[in-house]
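Feature request disguised as a bug: please show the residue count (353) next to Adenine DNA glycosylase in the output. Example input:
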Amino acid sequence: MDFHKTLLNWYLLNSRSLPWRETSNPYNIWLSEIMLQQTRIAQGLPYYEKFIAHFPTVFDLANAKEEHVLKLWQGLGYYSRARNLHFTAKYVAEELNGIFPDNYKDLKKLKGVGDYTAAAIASICYDEPVAVVDGNVYRVLARYFGVETPINSTEGVKQFKALAQEMLYKKDPKHYNQALMEFGALHCKPKNPLCESCPFQKNCVAFQQGKTASLPVKLKKTKVTTRHFNYLVFKKNDETLLQKRTGKGIWKNLYEFPLLETSEEIQKEAFTNHPEVEKLVGKNFKNIRLYNNKPIKHVLSHQKLFAKFWIISVEDFPVAFEKPIIATQFSTIETFAVPVLLEKFIEAFHFSK
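Example output, currently without the count:
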């Protein structure tokens, strides 16, 4: 059986109609691939369409303010992707005259572009015979060949990259790569794969040996840490306070309410008497009330956050903040790029009402 013929025939009959498949413009392909990293197509598609509407060319994206980019990205997660996206757009626009590199090697030099994204752009836009290896490809190849090497090990990454390149249909890498990823996404799914109607059934080692559920093999994840966030939501007439996150965290350059992190969940008396709260709030407050008695759980890749929102009504805003702080009216708070945890709170709290 010719693997590529069977795969391409399946793709011809089953591929989804997606906007980035209607073009070979590297800007569109790059944008879609960055957005779809660790993101389902159903979730990423509206963001892609929104970005293309606001930034139809790499020059438009390059000229945008980072805050605008982060605001449009809000809710998609992994915000370093958005910051790298903006950085690379400016580099391509200013240093490369708006022209993306036309080969895998040079594409990899762009910030935020790794092996997978470079291979996708190079093969889809320029027909360069280089294989893509994403989660879908790992899964299909691991099951088809019965490979038990962990896909997130150094050895596994090397082995699957070589296997994918060996299997690549070099006469049509553009459609072959897309077909393999699509097959993994729609047919050879992580759970409940459609094995009974699979065109590769007779040659699939995992199916023949009953190993479909156990492949691919993945090493255990990094230990998840638990953190307790206490947000200080100040209210003074129709204004509140926001600060911009700095440092290297995933929420870098996003806005949030002043934050007090504690080692464990804290109750009202302990919160009110906490030295940091006394330092920031002092006695200049009308009242302090807890918005949510039960902490709101927010799960990130390696962290579990438990958040409480403390509503603090004041006569005047405190001045004892170490980080840059800004006062903003309730009516404009939704214009700031914030983590999705805060976005949901803002929507529920109805500041402007």
